[in-house]
Design a protein that fits this description.
single chain, 285 residues, mainly beta, Immunoglobulin-like, 11-stranded antiparallel sheet, 5-stranded mixed sheet, 1 helix, 20 strands, Lipoprotein, signal
C-alpha cells in the first residue's frame, strides 16, 4: 500500500508539470501571437511575436488593414511601424511615403507581403513629419495619413519670471498694499518704440510698440519661450499717466488680463506692466 501511494503521488506531480509546460508552450506559440491585437487596457497595443515592441504605439486603421507606428520618437531613435490586419490574405505591396517639399516621396516599400510587414526610418531631426501608407492589391487602401513627432528627450528646462519694458519699477512696497519688493519693469508707450524683455538684469528678448495698430508685440531670444503647459503665462495690467504703482511690484495674480498671447492690445493708457512665466531649455545631447 505504501508503494502504491508513492507511485500515485509521482504520477500526479508528473501530470502537473506536464500541464505547466504545455501552458508555457501555448503562451509562446508563434501562431497564436502572429497578428497585432489590442490589450484589455485602453491605450496599449501588443506586438506580434518576435517583432519590435510597440507598447503605447498609435494604431491607424483603414478597412481590414492596420498600421501600428511610434507617434513620438526621441532624437536619434528610429521611427518604427508594422503593417497588419485581416486583409493580408495574399501577396501585397505596402508603401510608406513622406511629404517633403510639397510632394510625396517614397521612403519604404515591401513586395510579396502576404502576412504584413515591418520597417523603420532613421535620421530624422527634431520636428513634426507627415507620412501616408498604402496597401496595393484588391481591396487595398490608399493614402492614409499619419504624423510622427521627433523630440529631444534630453532637454532640461529652467523656469523664470520675465517683465517687459525699460521703465524700472519701484521695489519698496507701501505697508498693506499687497505688493512686494521684487524687481519689475513697465513698458512706457511714450518711450522708445523697441524696448527690452528682462529676466532680472538679463535681456531675454524685445518688445515693439506699433502706434498705428495699438499693439505691443513681444519676441523672445532663441533660447527662451513661454512656460509650456501654462494657460496664464502672460499677465498684464495698464496704468494711466501718473498712476504707475510706486509701492512695490504689483501682484501678478491680480492682473485683469491673463492668457498666452504675446501681442498686447493697448487701450490708451501710458504704462503696461506685463508679467511673463518663461522657460529656458538646454539639451544634453
Amino acid at each position: 500500500m505504501k508503494i502504491f501511494t508513492t507511485k500515485l503521488l509521482g504520477l500526479v506531480i508528473s501530470a502537473l508539470l506536464l500541464g505547466a509546460c504545455s501552458q508555457m508552450a501555448t503562451y509562446e506559440n508563434e501562431d497564436l501571437t502572429n497578428t497585432l491585437a489590442k490589450s484589455d487596457q485602453s491605450g496599449f497595443t501588443l506586438s506580434p511575436y518576435e517583432t519590435t515592441r510597440f507598447e503605447n504605439a498609435m494604431v491607424s486603421e483603414s478597412g481590414d488593414f492596420i498600421l501600428t507606428y511610434t507617434e513620438n520618437v526621441c532624437l536619434g531613435d528610429d521611427i518604427l511601424f508594422t503593417f497588419g490586419g485581416t486583409g493580408f490574405t495574399g501577396n501585397r505591396t505596402v508603401q510608406v511615403q513622406e511629404f517633403v517639399n510639397d510632394e510625396w516621396v517614397q521612403v519604404f516599400q515591401q513586395s510579396q507581403a502576404s502576412s504584413g510587414a515591418s520597417g523603420n526610418l532613421s535620421g530624422y531631426e527634431v520636428g513634426t513629419y507627415l507620412f501616408r501608407w498604402k496597401v496595393a492589391g484588391q481591396g487595398g487602401v490608399q493614402n492614409v495619413e499619419f504624423t510622427v513627432e521627433v523630440e529631444d528627450c534630453n532637454v532640461s528646462c529652467e523656469y523664470e519670471t520675465g517683465y517687459v519694458g525699460n521703465t524700472i519699477g519701484e521695489t519698496e512696497p507701501a505697508q498693506g498694499n499687497g505688493n512686494n519688493n521684487a524687481w519689475w519693469y513697465a513698458f512706457d508707450i511714450e518711450g522708445p518704440t523697441t524696448q527690452n524683455v528682462y529676466q532680472k538684469n538679463n535681456v531675454i528678448g524685445t518688445a515693439v510698440y506699433d502706434e498705428n495698430a495699438g499693439t505691443i508685440t513681444i519676441n523672445f531670444d532663441s533660447s527662451y519661450s513661454l512656460k509650456e503647459g501654462e494657460s496664464e503665462s502672460v499677465k498684464w495690467s495698464s496704468y494711466a499717466d501718473g498712476l504707475l504703482p510706486t509701492g512695490g511690484r504689483p501682484t501678478p495674480g491680480q492682473s485683469l488680463n491673463k492668457g498666452t498671447d504675446l501681442v498686447i492690445d493697448t487701450n490708451g493708457d501710458r504704462y503696461y506692466v506685463i508679467h511673463l512665466d518663461v522657460q529656458v531649455c538646454t539639451s544634453a545631447s
